[in-house]
Design the sequence.
């Protein structure tokens, strides 16, 4: 059969208007937001690529499933459908719903965290790291060596470094090993089945449980099918089962490959562990058959999990990311390759090579994307993942200075992506004029969500009027309140 070109495998039934803004408006809006894109109102954003989490479009089957949501406190059939979907697709018998991924992490670390424990992962996502650290444990990242080069075409740059993992396990105090598929902090890059088997082997040797951070498991399985030797002819659903058969449990944010707007779960094989988790769940999340979710949310996730493993969907999803990555690469824009599963990552260290890491090039670039074309993206660099020297207390840089343009599922069309390519290209052409930023105020944890920023020097043609003093005094809540009052 001749192969058809890949298109969006859906029609659009309901649309949401996008409000266009002018450059002058965006300069003022960004200033009012303390130069932090997390403080922008979504109505002031033209293309919102801040996250792929909970921002996707649901299918008509998911909307239909909402109507049969049963809101009973206990024993809801919606939970039974949710549980069955997780059991069928991932193969874990014990299924514990949570309101989102970080609640599952919090529960897991309430048992496995605490000092002096050490939790290794290929790369912790920021909430996973925060939950491990808040419990008193140390979160260690062991990404594979190939992930260090943003231009290398190694197909599984999400892999874990097995030599580093072994060294950590030999030091002791490790209660469990985690692996994140795909590796979000490392660029949405996949983990191979071969690497997962290697991790399992080490877990067996040291008698430790393995938990998968499963947020983007469908995308990971698709890359295994496409990139790993001997997997090309296999069904994605079988590859998914192979991945999870190697693990003892998983944490999941259903806001990603659950294709839902909210939801998550923790799943495992050990009944005693699950019972203990359920006892803790009741205290903070809710009864074990709803875990902080409405019955209709459980229905949306149950249906979403079945949709995410459809191969026509996954082929389109991968093609839509690849389209942007390759177009930018052809224009000479430094972009992380090979294309990942859920986002386009710009390499801001190479994009703005005149800025040292202390001037947060990733954050500076994210601001310019908004000023140029109303695109909201997110820094994944030193602002988000930077550390502290334990002796001097001085800030230390993240491994990479990336800007993530996360693509919501089934939400934007190819012409939206053409717009994104043009805007990035325009910013790239004037890159030499772009200034760095400094942090003015910052919360103690997860600072990217709450910090305000000022410009280091003034020179950018678009951001010229953003000076540190005016932003430093800003009360972003007041500004937002005033804007809301105006709307009413
Ligand atoms: N693990 C990974 C790999 C994630 O990407 C996220 C969320 C979480 C855990 C936490 O899940 O948001 O449901 O509590 N990532 C979002 C993002 C926020 O934008 O990448 P959550």
Sequence:
């Amino acid at each position: 059969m001749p192969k058809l070109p890949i298109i969006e495998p859906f029609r659009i039934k309901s649309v949401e208007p996008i409000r266009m803004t002018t450059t002058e408006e965006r300069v003022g809006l960004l200033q009012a937001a303390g130069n932090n894109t997390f403080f922008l109102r979504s109505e002031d954003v033209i293309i919102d690529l801040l996250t792929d989490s909970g921002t996707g479009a649901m299918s008509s089957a998911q909307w239909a499933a909402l109507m049969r949501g049963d809101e009973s406190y206990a024993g809801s059939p919606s939970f039974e459908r949710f549980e069955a979907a997780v059991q069928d697709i991932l193969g874990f018998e014990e299924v514990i719903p949570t309101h989102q991924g970080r609640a599952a992490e919090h529960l897991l670390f309430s048992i496995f965290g605490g000092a002096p424990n050490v939790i290794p992962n290929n790369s912790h996502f920021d909430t996973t790291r925060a939950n491990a650290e808040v419990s008193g444990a140390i979160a260690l990242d062991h990404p594979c060596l190939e992930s260090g080069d943003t231009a290398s075409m190694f197909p599984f740059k999400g892999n874990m470094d097995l030599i580093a993992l072994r060294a950590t396990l030999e030091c002791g105090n490790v209660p469990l090993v985690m692996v994140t598929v795909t590796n979000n902090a490392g660029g949405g890059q996949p983990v191979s089945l071969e690497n997962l088997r290697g991790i399992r082997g080490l877990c067996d040797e040291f008698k430790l449980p393995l938990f998968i951070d499963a947020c983007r498991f469908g995308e990971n399985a698709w890359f295994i099918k496409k990139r790993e030797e001997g997997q090309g002819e296999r069904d994605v659903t079988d590859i998914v089962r192979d991945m999870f058969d190697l693990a003892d449990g998983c944490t999941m944010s259903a806001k990603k490959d659950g294709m839902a707007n909210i939801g998550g779960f923790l799943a495992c094989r050990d009944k005693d562990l699950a019972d203990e988790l359920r006892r803790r769940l009741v205290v903070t999340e809710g009864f074990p058959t709803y875990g902080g979710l409405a019955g209709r949310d459980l229905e949306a996730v149950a249906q979403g999990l079945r949709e995410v493993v459809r191969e026509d969907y996954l082929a389109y999803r991968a093609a839509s990311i690849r389209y942007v990555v390759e177009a930018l690469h052809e224009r000479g824009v430094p972009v992380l390759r090979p294309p990942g599963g859920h986002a386009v990552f710009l390499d801001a260290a190479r994009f703005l090579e005149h800025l040292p890491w202390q001037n947060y090039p990733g954050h500076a670039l994210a601001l310019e994307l908004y000023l140029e074309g109303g695109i909201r993206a997110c820094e994944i660099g030193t602002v988000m993942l930077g550390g502290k020297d334990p002796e001097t207390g001085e800030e230390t840089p993240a491994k990479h200075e990336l800007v993530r343009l996360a693509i919501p599922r089934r939400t934007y069309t190819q012409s939206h992506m053409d717009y994104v390519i043009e805007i990035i290209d325009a910013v790239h052409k004037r890159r030499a004029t772009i200034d760095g930023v400094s942090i003015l105020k910052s919360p103690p944890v997860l600072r990217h969500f709450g910090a305000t920023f000022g410009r280091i020097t003034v020179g950018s043609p678009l951001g010229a009027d953003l000076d540190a003093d005016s932003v430093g005094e800003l009360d972003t809540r007041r500004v937002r309140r005033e804007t809301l009052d105006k709307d009413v």
In short: Confidence is low (pLDDT under 50) at residues 458-481, 483-488. DSSP finds 19 helices and 16 strands in the chain. The pocket of F0G is lined by residues 51, 53, 100-102, 125, 127-128, 180, 184, 213, 215, 253, 255, 264, 406 (CB under 6 Å).
